[in-house]
Amino acid sequence: MPFKFENTWLKEEGFKEVLRQWWEGIQVSGSASFILTEKLKALKPILRSWNKEVFGQIDSNKQNAWNLIDNWDKEERVRSLSLEEEEARKEARESYKKWAFLEEVSWR
């Protein structure tokens, strides 16, 4: 499978620094093209694992945030929400915006 860089990674705070540490930590000798190829091969599983840990499944994270918003909206139709519940709904909306934005970046 070819190496694929995801633009969403650039939106994660501290990604460039972590990437630099990983890159510099991979020690390979040989020609410049060989070093590049081997470092990319070594970096691929690291990035795949990191991507899964940090982003998980964008679609499912976005859907979970949407479900939380929907639940709070339904609850509000029945009764008034407390300040804590209003804050939880606000956090769910921010989470939804974040995942929708990352999905859009990914598609670009």
Structure described in brief:
This protein is mainly alpha-helical.
Task: Explain how this protein is built.
The chain is an all-alpha fold and 108 residues long. The chain folds into two domains: 7-54, no CATH class; 58-107. It is 74% helix and 0% strand. The chain contains four helices and no strands. Helix 3 (58-78) runs antiparallel to helix 4. It starts with 14 loop residues before the first helix and ends with a helix. The model has no long low-confidence stretch (mean pLDDT 87).
Q: Output the structural class.
A: mainly alpha
Specify Rg, calculated over alpha carbons. Answer: 20 Å
**Averaged pLDDT, please?**
87
Helix share bin = over 70%
- SSE sequence, one letter per element: HHHH
Distance between the termini: 21 Å
Poorly predicted runs of 5 or more residues: none
Q: How many individual β-strands?
A: 0
Q: What is the domain tally?
A: 2
Anisotropy-based shape: elongated
Largest sheet: none
Counting DSSP H or I runs of 4 or more residues, the number of helices is: 4
- Beta-strand level of the residues, as a percent range? under 5%
Provide key terms for this protein.
108 residues, mainly alpha, 2 domains
Topology, pairings included?
Elements: H1 15-25, H2 32-54, H3 58-78, H4 83-107
Helix pairs in contact: 3-4
